[in-house]
Amino acid sequence: MDIFKLKGLIILIVIVVGLLFAAPNFFGKQDVPEGWIGPKEKIKLGLDLQGGMHLILKVVTDKAVESRLTSISSDLKGQMIDKRIHYKGVTSQSPDLLLVDLRTPDDVENLRKLIADGYPYLQEADKSTRDDITTLTYQMSAEEASVIRDQAVAQALETIRNRIDQYGVSEPSIIPQGRERIVLQLPGIKDPERAKNLLQNTAILEFKLVDEQHPVDDAVRGDVPAGSYVAYMRDGRTPILLKDKAVMTGDLLDDARVRIKTTYNEPYVAISFNKEGARIFERVTTENVGNRLAILLDGRVSSAPVIREAISGGDAIIEGRFTMDEASDLAIILRAGALPAPVEILEERTVGPSLGRDSINKGFTSIMIGGILVIVFMVIYYRFSGLLADLALVCNIILILGILGLFNAVLTLPGIAGIVLTIGMAVDANVIVFERIKEETRLGRTPKMAVEAGYNNALSTILDANITTLIAAIVLFQFGTGPVRGFAVTLTIGILSSLFTVLFLCKWIMEWLVNEKKIERISI
Amino acid sequence: MELIRPGTHIEFMKFKTIAFTLSIALIVLSLISIVFLKGINYGIDFAGGTEVQVGFSETVKTADIRGALETIGLSKARIQSIDSAEGSEFLVRIPMIEDSTEDLVLKIETTFGDAFGKEKVDIRRAEMVGSEVSKDLKQKGFLALFYAGIGILIYIWWRFELKFSFGAIIALIHDVVITVGIFSLMGKEINLPVIAALLTIVGYSLNDTIVVFDRIRENMKKASGSYDLVSLLDNSISQTLSRTLLTSLTTFIVVLCLYLLGGSVIHNFAFAMMVGVIVGTYSSIFIASPTLLILGQSKK
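Output (structure tokens, whole complex):
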């Protein structure tokens, strides 16, 4: 086989492969028929076309550092009591400072020793003395803080993944961005508000004993007994006096399920603890029979039932006049675990399914009408050669779709615009060549020479012209986000495929016409 | 068929004073509008805020929408009516409220539901961009334009002489400034897709310019030695004119289709492209090449 035929074969193979990968998209919404041997995957649609929610969340890592510091400070208090260091107060200051008030120089020295031995990540930042009270200020080391922040983000990512998985979203994409951001793509979300609540709920579950010794009314008026504080029930109005210390937390949870009370048809969440949790729960309930145990979610009291008897086995229930959705979401987030720090929504973009469908239809119409107009124009202007350019155009679209399918790229509305633009611009390379061939013919060259000279002279122009657009497209891909990136993708693929169709496909056909068919005149 | 008769020789260089005057006037007008008059109307991508596209199954007046929004204290909202096949459709935009974590989208949806009937309201699109992200996007947008400019400059520098690079870059700045100026004058929003359009215009306009420049370079080589630069430039532009017009025409056709049929979401993108195609074609004929002439003369 000669080189010319081999070239033709390779070009044909490229186009057939492109067609195979593009083919599944031609069936529209229907499935690819059975017995189809080629690839079955359709091009993935971006959120702007299929509807869904795009979110950028920021993990407020300061809070993670802060809460770590809070637990350090309560630990430190215990240690100081053990070591007989007399402290007047321990306060933490956002986000990474811990202040200890001490009375004597001995205490200062002992504390320094204690910190150096037990808390190497605390660094003394300041020492001040006022009215016989010495205040030592400790700062959490930058490395430690950064480890805590990174852990918080990693854990938040894990928790959010779990929650989304359990909520049931098809093909979600959850990826970290930068140091503390998480980008979520959730296709087909029907109730964006519910999804946002599900994500933002820190879901810190705590069990605290109710302070039954003191009247809650006095506390509300400001007379709060030491070791207790005023919390509110879920309605936000009813106060309840709780002990500061949580007797248990949600990390000891094994499972959480929605159940429905048969008597009132009211949903509740049944939880079961793991072994350690069950043991602690049994001890707490044994020691506090007759007392009330408050169940807190994110600081709000869901319920505070009276402990009637010791509970072994590790099962408990959370009630709180939930709706069915609320109860099932609560079960999801309890199973998925708590967020180590609250998350803020930095960016939210939701596209309803109706607009997505509209956009697909409109984009498709634009491609069809634009394509037909250009195709007709080319035939009118260039006659037979125009048909050749049109063939290139059709192959172009097939190749773009095929390559999108092959690389699993996502098609967005700006991406469709990129295809439309390619239709207009892709004929350019052919126009440059055709105009050249016309000129060469006018100079009296034979078709064979005119074609050869036409392609040779046009080549560098075509490359130069396309490379500049390619540079713009690549920069756009680098800096663009979401839908705009889709534009950069189709534009890039469009440029490359139009170079292929013009410089290989059309050139081959032209050469075949003048060399093999030996046509006398080019219809151009 | 011939768009431009072969052998046509148009004396483009004669128009250079008029063209430069016109372009400078347009650029000055654009800059005045951008800097002093209207400024740049950044979309929520860059300014932050909340935008809700809402459809109603029956006809609703803009005034009713405003009234409903005022009940929840959103009197600053900008309301824009969108063409829709049935019922009515609006774009509601609320500027960024600092330090507010309130869920505006939910609030707006509830308010419309209460005012017009829940089943008649369809939230078709809702976007919220916080200040942190909008700052990021703005920076990225400008960086993208900047790096694309640098990348293209380097490429042209490598492929052509410095003189040509200047001509191309001047044409390019010309196109971008005038397009942004027209957006500013018309009060149209600049959002992420518009930046994408600007970058494409940069690539496209250069495409045109390069085709002309390539021809100029080729003709210079052919003439080898003595030539009249003015008539050489005129010739080169005339020779490539039909290609320039043809490609601009096909591109314009498809962009117009996109503008008319593509729907509200990419309206501004398509508009920027339309302006860009026209300005880009003009600049590669009347600005880029005459710049070569001026630079060429100053050298002598």
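Strands of chain B lie at 41-42, 49-56, 78-82, 88-94, 121-129, 189-190.
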